[in-house]
């Protein structure tokens, strides 16, 4: 319990230091709550007797008590480790890598538990022991489809979204799939600059928006800009930074060349507006 208490204490301390908002509190609850839940389940699994309601309920465990016991002893340790890993991810909740690791650790706990049960079954068969395993092809098919769809959905959310900037005579609109669009009048732009790595290593975190492996959209906060609005591609580390009626907007393209083109286009439009 001491490592668990230490992780919880460090997580709470980080939240206090960063001035936690609702999203940070939600992410902390997700990481630490899931981690604690997995540790409780991991501690309980080895004690679960063979049944049709609770546990690693696959065909090899349900029809072989020895397989059930071995699988649940192994899975108890595995789920405990997954729980600790989830809580460690909570210490780096601003990082997208932490979210990916969190998802992978949860999926691994479930998949490896099932795989262990199957390998235990195959090992017993290899010794010459005869086991009557009755397969329900319909149930296996439905379970397989649900598992595949769940994995596809999880991967899809990591790459969801798109960002396109549409330029008009008087304004431009950031058209975002996955978050709300954002329109800016050129006359509202007080200043504009092209910067490289401007939002890196400055305690940057999302306060209300979408963030995955490809995009960051919505409201963010860091040590330099404070609260600001962002529509950026993760693949590019150059940015167009604008001050708009006291608010900061950060945008970019898929690469440095596209970002420079955005900068020159907006700068030209702003200059024409001032004439």
Structure overview:
By secondary structure, this protein is of the alpha+beta class. The chain has 2 domains: 158 residues, no CATH class; 113 residues, PH-domain like, CATH 2.30.29. Helix content is 51%, strand content 22%. A 6-stranded mixed beta sheet has the order 4-8-9-7-6-5. A hairpin with a 2-residue loop joins strand 8 and strand 9. The longest helix has 31 residues. The model has no long low-confidence stretch (mean pLDDT 84).
Write the element-wise H/E pattern from the N-terminal end onward: HHHHHHEEEEEEEEEH
| Unreliable spans | none
* Main pleated-sheet profile: 6 strands, mixed
Residue-averaged pLDDT, rounded?
84
Please give the alpha-carbon distance between the first and last residues.
68 Å
Please, how many helices?
7
Secondary-structure-based class equals alpha+beta
Number of strands: 9
Helix-residue proportion: 40-55%
Strand content: 15-25%
Q: Which word captures the global form?
A: elongated
Q: Rg, please?
A: 25 Å
- For the biggest β-sheet, the strand order reads 4-8-9-7-6-5
What oligomeric state is this? single chain
| Domain unit count | 2
